[in-house]
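Consider one such protein record:
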Amino acid sequence: MPELWGRAYRKAELLERVGRLDQVAGIRLVTLGDGAERGVRVLELRTGSGFAVDVLVDRAFDLGRCEHRGRPLAWCSGVGFAGPWFGEPEDLGFFRTWGGGLLTTCGIDHALFMAEDTAAQYHFPPKQTESFGLHGRVSNRPARLTGYGERWDGQECVLWAEGEVLQVSVFGEQLLLRRRIEARVGESRVRVHDTVENIGFDTTPHMLLYHVNVGFPVVDAGSELVVPARGVEARGDHPVEGYRTLVAPAEGFVEQVFEHDVAADADGIVPVAVVNRELGLGVYELYRRDQLPFHFAWRMLGQGTYVVGIEPSTNRAAGRLDARARGELIELRAGERREYDLELGVLDGRDAIDVFAARVRALAPEPAG
């Protein structure tokens, strides 16, 4: 049963108290109307617990602004959630339209830093290679909205949305991302289920990274990264020591990336969070290690760009060419598909933070860093 304001309500009890469910929780489609965001469709999802998140229909069905009881959870960039029609996919053009938000999908044929790789598999002699910009193209692709609404399963009410993101090219990749998002009324979490399918006829590389962007006030001086790391490696010239404790915004801060060897629980689930114990607030992610075997922490603690990314990935931080050289680059045959599951939610109060931290410590009692 949905629990709202400290009381559990049966379906009949709740519905007889409201004109429609949207009075306390729901999902509705709106269109942004100004600036670079003009024309972008958004599904506003509210669970009734104080948890609200925007589904960016025209930006790969990603998750944008997110809050809990009026407190923001996600970092949002100065760019805003610009329409994909402004996309600049080459080199570092990703940053021109990246609004941040709770979840940015990176991929789905390329993720991580820029690369040039073979395109011989597409049988078009003038195109022997292809260049890939930072984090690929998919986040700048609009989805086809296939459905959304509310569904009662007995005494539980589920808010849901589904979309399809097509990334295709003549003489290139033919990939389809099908995404379903669900959240239960009364809860403060959202679940994402993705299927990536090669709908073409040529074997095609596939990479996926979930860029989960946690911002102020969860990210603040003294906040902590909680991760079941059996080992950690800095991807650059910066120290590992103390990296899990965050600092105040710093002038001229240069981004830092840390790659984790994470432990999973008996069900194969990896729990990771960023928590502010003083505030009693945290953001967590749960994902399957067999689906996403690598994990990174992105510390960008600069002025304005003040964010921590907790990022499960199909590949190491070294990127596409490294993955190919190691024999780790996924290649989807015609009709082949991969499935991925991600849960994002709130840790509300110090007790909830302590319980989650204990869960992590049970997997990696002495995490590095």
Remarks:
- The mean pLDDT is 96.
- The chain has one domain: 3-363.
- The radius of gyration is 20 Å.
- The chain is about 10% helix and 45% strand.
